[in-house]
Description:
Elements: H1 2-13, H2 18-44, H3 51-77, H4 82-91, H5 98-107, H6 128-138, H7 140-161
Helix pairs in contact: 2-3, 3-4, 3-7
Amino acid sequence: MASSDSAATTASDSRLTPRRLYRFFAIAETITWTLLIIGMLLKYVARIGDWPVTVGGSIHGFIFLAYAFTAGLVGVNQRWRPLQIVGAVATAIVPYATIPFDNWLERRGMLVGDWRREKSDDPRDGTWVSALLRFFLAHPILLSGLMVVAVIAVFSVLLTLGPPTEWGA
């Protein structure tokens, strides 16, 4: 019996929960901040050219967008208030702020629970946003594909606009 309990625990531990998805991108966002900062040091201190910032900035930008979309998805699933979702995205603008925010969410139990695939008695489940969430959660390949396409589309538009330092020029 212990082995079946262990197998069940292992299976549930390997599932992609909202908490795991959010935490993955919060940590990835922090790692890419480090890449960007190293790139800036190589460019401005070591003076080896623009390429370290281009590479670090591109990776960071892509993960930033993926984190923002993930924060929105997880926030809607976990029934965060809109300001909390905006706060989650805003933490990615400040280097290394996604980890303390993740810890804040964890302490408040705001990452606990599974994906909301079924409508419950909660009145918030009657909204069109919750219905859309349930639809996409019932079609995870479609959801994943649309999120990847959305991140690539936004990333491409931002690449066309150039570095953020040139947007006002």
